[in-house]
Design goal:
Residues 148-163 form the CCHC-type domain. This protein has 197 residues and is mainly α. The protein has helices at residues 6-26, 33-47, 50-59, 64-81, 85-89, 92-134, 162-179, 187-194. The chain contains eight helices and no strands.
């Protein structure tokens, strides 16, 4: 409801949830307390006005009571930002307006502290991710101590072994006539062997 305050809405939604859950209990269904609390919290947040709901969701309240307090502070701060001119013009309401302004200032201060804490935590996490990405790749050992697994000589790895490379090239030229039947560098010789014409 557009004119309903957050506190009134919280009382109404709590009553409706209580009735609904009692109906389930009468039907013999067993519902855990944690499920009830989550259900009440989700129904409360989903029923809020969009301008309040977004900020409550961002605050990520842990329980219903906390969500009501956050939503009430937001509603109070919004009413100060866009006050009803008719109610402020009356001298009797100026004192109420001052109280409201003070509470809103406190609300903004608390909200700003919360946002600052969240930003600090986020910055810390971003720094950790950047440091992990910038860390130098592991260095290879000094090659003087390395022994090749292929030729058993020191000074290089097997993937850099010249003997292994030479053996591969020699095997490729020997086997090219046996396994390759297509046209290409080795295929033409192959075709000549098969068709001596």
């Amino acid at each position: 409801m557009e004119q309903e305050s957050v506190k009134d809405f919280s009382v109404r939604i709590e009553g409706l949830a209580h009735k609904c859950l009692n109906n389930h209990l009468e039907n013999g269904e067993n519902i855990s307390d944690s499920f009830r609390a989550r259900l009440l919290l989700s129904q409360f947040v989903s029923g809020l006005k969009q301008s309040i709901k977004a900020q409550v969701v961002a605050a990520n309240p842990s329980d219903f009571k906390t969500a009501v307090e956050i939503a009430d502070r937001i509603q109070t701060s919004q009413s100060i930002l866009t006050p009803n001119i008719n109610s402020v013009s009356d001298f009797a309401h100026i004192n109420d307006f001052a109280k409201l302004l003070k509470s809103t200032t406190e609300t903004f201060t608390k909200s700003l502290e919360l946002v600052t804490q969240q930003l600090q935590a986020l910055n810390t996490r971003v720094d950790e991710v950047q440091k992990s990405r910038q860390s130098a790749p592991p260095q290879r050992q000094n090659k003087n101590r390395v022994t090749c697994f292929h030729c058993r000589k020191q000074g290089h790895y097997a993937n850099e072994c010249r003997k292994k490379l030479a053996e591969r090239r020699q095997n490729d030229t020997r086997n090219s006539g046996r396994y390759s039947y297509g046209r290409g560098a080795y295929g033409n010789n192959n075709m000549q062997r098969r068709n001596p014409n």
